[in-house]
Amino acid sequence: MPEDSYPPVIAAQLEFPAIVEADLATILDRLDALVYVADMDTHELLFLNAYGRQKWGDFQGRKCWQVLQDKQDGPCGFCSNARLLDEHGKPSGVHVWEFQNTSNGHWYQCRDQAIEWTDGRIVRLEIATDITDRKRMELALEKAVARAEALARTDELTGLNNRRAFFELGERFCMRGRAGHPVAVLMFDVDHFKRINDTYGHAAGDALLRALGQRLPPLLRPTDVLGRLGGEEFAVLLPETDAQQAWLIAERLRSGIESLVVECEGRSIGCTASFGVAVHEHEAVCLDTLLGEADQALLQAKRAGRNRTHTAPSR
Fold first, then answer.
1. Which of 39, 105, 202, 222 has the most CB atoms lying inside 10 A of its own CB?
2. Would you say the pTM of this structure is higher than 0.85?
3. For residues 243 and 309, what is the distance between their CA atoms, to the nearest angstrom?
């Protein structure tokens, strides 16, 4: 780009009175970062350094969003102009932010500032440094951390909430148990699970537990919390659920388990489960209390012959 085509940046504005226009343009063209100036009202590009021209092409007579972004028919929704002026329309300082460019997909750290141009108007000066490599590492780390946190709360065998996750989620709901906001807990375990392991082997027992992890979630509501507490023992927290609704849900799960058949090493294996239900309809309650009452109801179901649901007295 010929030197005389650069906009007349006055060196004194940048506190370099001895530097002439061409010298300043040469310095900006040596930077390994995007530098551009745009009119804050019309968005017309007034200056684009060599780094920008090499990546985005010609800018003369075009608006910043037409050159620097992709598939836009108007100013960017994320435009920082409003952040660069105070309530009196005066420059308010440097605004630093990060974004992913819609044209090339790269991430940039941007330093935006409103400055006075040579003709007296206020324009936006942006210096944008490519941080794509750093951002990719940050995003990969965030995903790894999120995955690790999810795994720490997920039962490895069934894919359900583990004991830790169940208690963390459950405590959020239980204290809401008051008039008009009942909360229920189901506890259940697989009947004669030790016999299944002894007869068919632990691989068969694991196959049954994995099948339960797939069969049961679709039978519950999105707000219900299902978890494996350990071994063949499971629990479900049912927010906003009274005694009758809880019993119906327990029976739906029990029937789903009863009809489950797993193929393992050429043999068809089924199982049943016993359920205990506890409900608090009129008062706040801690999860441990609800689980204790549901566990006692579960024992009653087992004593009555298994493969059935027993409900503790409501409170």
1. 39
2. no
3. 12
